[in-house]
């Protein structure tokens, strides 16, 4: 027997976008049900990086004391671009008067889950959405944690269920309907027990390929270096990993320690052909993905939610569809700006497998143009810190 739940908004996916949307809807007095096929422990323990734009932090502030972005996260007022053995600081405060916060995504999720459960949110883990039936009263067809048939009937459905979205088919007609680009390289990431090698992130361009020196805490650091997409994480010894990282950050001595996690992160860009159809809309990775170089992924999702929450308030409280009709065009402007910025940062900093000497020298010229130009530094700072959320 199928269990049916009725609500105003059904949200598929308990990631940052889905959880924050449920919070913003509650503030407007609109009830929602949030489901996710993962367990709470799986969501909170999957370690993922996180650079939060200032606007994202300000929006997370609205969940109250549960948000630890400002107290546990680390404010960064700049980054370093390193090439030809020299570092060049991009000063965000001087260029655009804004900042970013280093705060991992899984910590954001812990904050949001705690806040939503404390508020009485109907949040259901272990529920697998199988399909979305679009219409005047759309339905989420799913199975609960025990495998029993389960469905949600709502006035609107939001797909925030990640890059392998089930909801996407109800909007675009297929799970893969979109604009797609795959890059010919990936990042080999390591987590290590060591003090920070730098106070701010280092984005390093070298003849051997790209490297990123990031941080997690006073004792745990995150670093990446460019690799082939099919690289085996077991292909390197720990000593070889440190050698590979160090040679790609000339001029900075990395502080080393035991490596306790390693993974390979593939580079893909995607934007769904459609972002809303009828009473179903997409947000976050269900709608778009970007390479991690520009730190736009979670921030784009939050920006989507800000726009969609306003549109749903107008629709469900006032019967006004104008903002909802404008939703795809409104968020697409930001999405494609972020796609460009992510592509630009990626192409400027990474060594393409087929790069020639001309390509290498052109790339260095581009880097010099950025760091030696007030306008170049300002563009990087503005895009990295994020465009205003208000639309």
TrEMBL record:
InterPro entries listed in its UniProt record: FAD-bd, FAD/NAD-bd_sf, PheA/TfdB_FAD_monoxygenase
Keyword check for Oxidoreductase: yes
GO molecular function, one term: FAD binding
Domain FAD-binding, first and last residues per copy: 6-341
Keyword Oxidoreductase in annotation: yes
Sorted UniProt keywords: Monooxygenase, Oxidoreductase
PANTHER family: 3-(3-HYDROXY-PHENYL)PROPIONATE/3-HYDROXYCINNAMIC ACID HYDROXYLASE, FAD-DEPENDENT MONOOXYGENASE
Protein name: p-hydroxybenzoate 3-monooxygenase
């Amino acid at each position: 027997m199928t269990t049916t739940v009725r609500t105003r908004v059904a949200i598929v996916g308990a990631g940052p976008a889905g959880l924050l949307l449920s919070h913003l809807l509650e503030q407007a007095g609109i009830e929602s049900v949030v489901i996710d096929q993962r367990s709470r422990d799986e969501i909170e323990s999957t370690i993922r990086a996180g650079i939060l734009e200032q606007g994202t932090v300000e929006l997370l502030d609205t969940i109250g004391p549960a948000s630890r972005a400002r107290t546990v996260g680390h404010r960064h007022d700049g980054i370093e671009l390193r090439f030809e053995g020299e570092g060049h600081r991009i000063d965000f405060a001087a260029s655009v008067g804004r900042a970013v916060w280093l705060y991992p995504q899984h910590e954001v999720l812990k904050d949001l889950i705690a806040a939503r459960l404390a508020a009485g949110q109907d949040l259901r883990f272990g529920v697998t959405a199988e399909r979305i039936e679009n219409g005047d009263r759309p339905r989420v067809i799913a199975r609960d944690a025990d495998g029993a048939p389960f469905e949600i009937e709502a006035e609107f459905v939001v797909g925030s269920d990640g890059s392998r979205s089930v909801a996407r088919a109800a909007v675009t007609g297929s799970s893969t309907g979109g604009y797609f680009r795959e890059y010919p390289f990936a990042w080999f990431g390591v987590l290590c027990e060591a003090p920070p090698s730098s106070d701010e992130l280092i984005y390093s361009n070298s003849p051997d390929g790209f490297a990123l020196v990031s941080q997690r805490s006073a004792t745990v650091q995150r670093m990446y270096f460019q690799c082939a997409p099919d690289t085996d994480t077991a292909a390197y010894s720990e000593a070889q990993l440190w050698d590979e990282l160090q040679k790609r950050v000339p001029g900075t001595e990395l502080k080393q320690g035991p490596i306790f996690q390693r993974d390979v992160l593939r580079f893909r860009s995607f934007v769904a052909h459609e972002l809303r159809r009828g009473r179903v809309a997409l947000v976050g990775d269900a709608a778009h993905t970007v390479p991690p170089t520009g730190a736009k992924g979670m921030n784009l999702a939050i920006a989507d939610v800000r726009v969609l929450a306003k549109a749903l308030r107008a629709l469900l409280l006032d019967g006004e569809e104008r903002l909802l009709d404008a939703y795809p065009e409104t968020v697409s402007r930001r999405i494609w700006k972020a796609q460009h910025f992510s592509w630009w940062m990626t192409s400027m900093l990474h060594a393409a497998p087929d790069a020639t000497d001309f390509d290498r020298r052109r790339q260095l010229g581009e880097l010099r143009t950025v760091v030696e130009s007030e306008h170049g530094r300002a563009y990087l700072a503005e895009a990295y810190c994020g465009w205003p959320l208000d639309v």
